[in-house]
Amino acid sequence: MGIIQKSQLKSPWVLHYDCSSCNGCDIEILASLTPVYDIERFGIINTGNPKHADVLLVTGGVNRRNARVLKNLYNQMPEPKVVVAVGSCACTGGVFYNCYNILGGVDKVIPVDVYVPGCAARPEAIIDGVVLGLQKLKEKTQMKSEEVAK
Amino acid sequence: MAKIVTPFGPQHPVLPEPLQLNITYEDEKVVSVAPAIGYIHRGLEKAGELNDFPQNVFLVERVCGICSFMHGMTYCEAIEDIMGVEIPPRAKYLRVFYSELSRIHSHLLWLGLLADAFGFESLFMKYWAIRERIVDLMEMTGGHRIILSASCIGGVRRDLTDEQISIIEKTLLEVKNELDHVTPVILKDYTVKKRTVGIGVLSKEEALTLGAVGPVLRASGVAQDLRQTGYEAYGELGFEPIVETDGDSYARAVVRAREVYQAIELALEALHHLPEGEAQVKVKGNPNGETIQRVEQPRGEVLWYVKGNGTKNLVRMRVRTPTYAHIPALLKMLPGCEMADVPVVTLSIDPCISCTER
Amino acid sequence: MSFEAKQITPEQLINETQQMFNEGYRFVTATCVDEIEQFRIIYSFDRETELVNLEVAIGKEEQLPSVSGVYLCAFLVENEIKELFGVNISDIAVDLGGRLYMIEGADPHPMTRKEKKKAAKGVKKNG
Ligand code: SF4
Q1: I need a surface site. Which of A25, B185, B203, B256 has the fewest CB within 10 A?
Q2: C-chain residues within 8 Å CB-CB of A100?
Q3: ipTM over the 0.95 cut-off
Q4: What CATH code is assigned to A3-149?
Q5: What is the pTM of this model?
Q6: Rounded CA gap, A20 and B346, in Å?
Q7: Do residues B228 and B76 make contact, with C-beta atoms less than 8 angstroms apart?
Q8: Architecture of the domain spanning B43-314+340-348
Q9: Closest CB to C31 among B43, B226, B305
Q10: Is the CB of A29 under 6 A from ligand 1?
Q11: Which fold has domain C2-65?
Q12: Model confidence pLDDT, tens digit, residues A24-83
């Protein structure tokens, strides 16, 4: 593993996108950046730019209009990348399962690596989810370097 | 000078939520704005017709995670109004307490986000650290950090014990002390003033004709607050709306910064006068009839329309949220301001997109 | 809070709203209710926390004039009603052509109620 891959695991940058959440989970994501939970302990930094991001945090279920935006964001992120679905909505559609404009969970549109349940998911759970995602990121990096070696 | 159109959003670092504004600039000045919404539209009003009406309480709490309690409460009030249920006095005071707790939480959150919008990150962190104290209170009383699910049809599900009350009183006073250190920064700091004074001005007449509500209306010099109508126990608690006259982003920040103090006062007052007795009455039957219910949320007036036909399912449920009323005002405020001020002006209405689109 | 509405016809709508505007009322919102045979639209206005409602009933195919010429801020809610219910509202100041929420590939007017569904409910209740 090269220095870039190593540092990616030590300091992953996250991108947050709100699909059709109720705000609850978004606040919790922001709260995990603030002093009490302080996600920066793990070197995790919130970025606004998909091209700099390693981890995509998605809240809320996918609706007809933002499915395209979500796909775009996902495609813009460089490989390897991890997607963390935060909250019941993002996992399955949650309370909004029977709304006419909700297609379902995030996995209807892009592949999801980690599911964080909860309505709203607690900051501890979100941090746990991201850290779990990092293991996946490591596997993906190894897979990629093996491919390159071949 | 050629005109350029740039999209602001849907994914933007300043707004946690996807609002898209297609802004036309001339040089660095905003010329016109076209909103494109629908990124969060879920169809919640229809789902309200498919679920049973008691189940809807949990659904409507998720119209918006920040005002969760207020939506739940207003919906319950509407159903109680149709069914002619009179809730016990203790429940009324508890509802006031929970409402004010939500207001403190929402305003602190917003003040932090405003600071973040112009890059004052330490202030953002400070406000959010204080906010965690309130969130802890919400968890202790309502059982959840964000979705404060305390209301139910017929009263309040979560009664307070004496021990809880003393903890709450102590914490609220501590929060007030901590705020005393931070609020002067918002009110007096040079950087804050530089970025907000005279930016995004909305005059009194414009505010009224464009249908602005809540803190935006009050910052433009209209003393209007639905709590004046004395719903729940507000009539007995005494209350004066907070008004500023300048109508700019600064005035809106000041109104909210002062309302936090007022909300702490009101919450303590409500706990102080908390009557003894039950907090909940049993409700039987199904709603038959229609009603309109309005309540003052942290962001302004919310309107709920509920119609039932005597079955478990409602015929129609509609909510008009404060941000919905603020979008025309926002479209008026933006033209003429600089590119760098767009995030600040947009935030100054306290946008909550998930309410707006439901 | 009781709920009273003044019944008016679609022709009176613009005049009545203009009068509200002149008296200094603030436009709160319009609420559309699908009553299967017809639409009921309730316009709410506020002056110093006092709520006044106007109610219009129109047939499903009839045309309704827009009040956004009087209260500009009504354009948002009228676009919403047009899209979600398919009410035929003419001359909206900022007409988004029924594409406010841009629900593509779904039922074009998702908020309308269908007779069939109501009958099905009735059957369930009896059985
Ligand atoms: S999981 Fe719950 S709290 Fe989170 S966005 Fe969905 S409804 Fe809101």
Answers
A1: B203
A2: 103, 106-107, 110
A3: no
A4: 3.40.50.12280
A5: 0.85
A6: 20
A7: no
A8: Orthogonal Bundle (1.10)
A9: B305
A10: no
A11: 2,3-Dihydroxybiphenyl 1,2-Dioxygenase; domain 1 (3.10.180)
A12: 888 888 888 888 888 888 788 888 788 888 888 888 888 877 888 888 888 888 878 889
